């Protein structure tokens, strides 16, 4: 049996992660700390001997910049990179831009947890006239209007991430190519839920830290056999807990 490996990485801290604001499809850059996290992740991958043949990312610069930092550190800037909106963060609707702790003060911790992690709960939707609606952004010009979200739950995010995984990424991993995906907290939660067959209840408590490589290993039938984060386990657990706590009133 030959082990097939896939590396997932959530982007490093963005300026809106730093300011604790709902981000979704808002195209904000990495913070200085996020740039450092992305380079450190690349150095770790290099030190552990990881190589890649092909890379996927979203069309949002915090994931793209993270991927670039990793490819720079691993000296793999030459490999093909495919960007696709289906790897974008879950669309946070009208919550985009609001501070998470202030929103919790106004609506309560429970409501914010439901908006953030409730499996099929959609945040309040944008209207198509709203400048934040993706139909106004030329990068989505080729996406059929019926597929452009005004808000998304994790369940809806799964409906775009998993077909993209099955049709585009998975065959490449299956054929033995070494693939890295740089994406987002919730688009990666969608993929992880699918890969590990996590229940709708259990996925509520799963938080993915910024800028930490998550390695999946598959057998010949593409069944995931194990997964692990690279790096210090205590630090990674503390980073994941910090993500969970972002939605609590101060
Ligand atoms: O704001 C967002 O887009 C996401 C990721 O940063 O946040 P959350 O962890 O609240 O789903």
Automatic annotation (TrEMBL):
Enzyme class: isomerase
Binding residues for substrate: 10-17, 23-24, 62, 89-92, 100, 116-117, 185-186
Residues making up the signal peptide according to the UniProt record: none
Keyword entries, A-Z: Gluconeogenesis, Glycolysis, Isomerase
Highest taxon above the source species: Bacteria
Active site residues according to the UniProt entry: 11 (tele-phosphohistidine intermediate), 89 (proton donor/acceptor)
Pathway membership, UniProt: Carbohydrate degradation; glycolysis; pyruvate from D-glyceraldehyde 3-phosphate: step 3/5
Subunit note: Homodimer.
Family of the protein in this entry: Belongs to the phosphoglycerate mutase family. BPG-dependent PGAM subfamily.
Protein name, as recorded: 2,3-bisphosphoglycerate-dependent phosphoglycerate mutase
Lineage of origin: Bacteria, Pseudomonadati, Pseudomonadota, Gammaproteobacteria, Aeromonadales
Gene: gpmA
């Amino acid at each position: 049996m030959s082990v097939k490996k896939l590396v997932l990485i959530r982007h490093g801290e963005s300026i809106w992660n730093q300011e604790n604001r709902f981000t979704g499809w808002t195209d904000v850059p990495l913070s200085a700390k996020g740039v450092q996290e992305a380079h450190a992740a690349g150095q770790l991958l290099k030190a552990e001997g990881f190589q890649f043949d092909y890379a996927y990312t979203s069309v949002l610069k915090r994931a793209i910049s993270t991927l670039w930092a990793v490819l720079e550190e691993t000296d793999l800037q030459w490999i093909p990179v495919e960007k696709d909106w289906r790897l974008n963060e879950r669309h946070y609707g009208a919550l985009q831009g609001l501070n998470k702790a202030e929103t919790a003060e106004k609506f309560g911790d429970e409501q914010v947890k439901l908006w953030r992690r409730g499996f099929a709960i959609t945040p309040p939707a944008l209207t198509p006239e709203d400048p934040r609606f993706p139909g106004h952004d030329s990068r989505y010009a080729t996406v059929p209007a019926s597929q452009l979200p005004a808000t998304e739950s994790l369940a809806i995010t799964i409906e775009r991430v998993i077909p993209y995984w099955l049709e585009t990424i998975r065959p490449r991993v299956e054929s033995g190519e070494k693939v890295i995906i740089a994406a987002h907290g919730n688009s990666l939660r969608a993929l992880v839920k699918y890969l590990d067959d996590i229940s709708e209840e259990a996925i509520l408590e799963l938080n993915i830290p910024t800028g930490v490589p998550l390695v999946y290993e598959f057998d010949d039938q593409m069944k995931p056999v194990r997964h692990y984060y690279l790096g210090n386990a205590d630090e990674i657990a503390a980073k994941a807990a910090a993500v969970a706590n972002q939605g609590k009133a101060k």
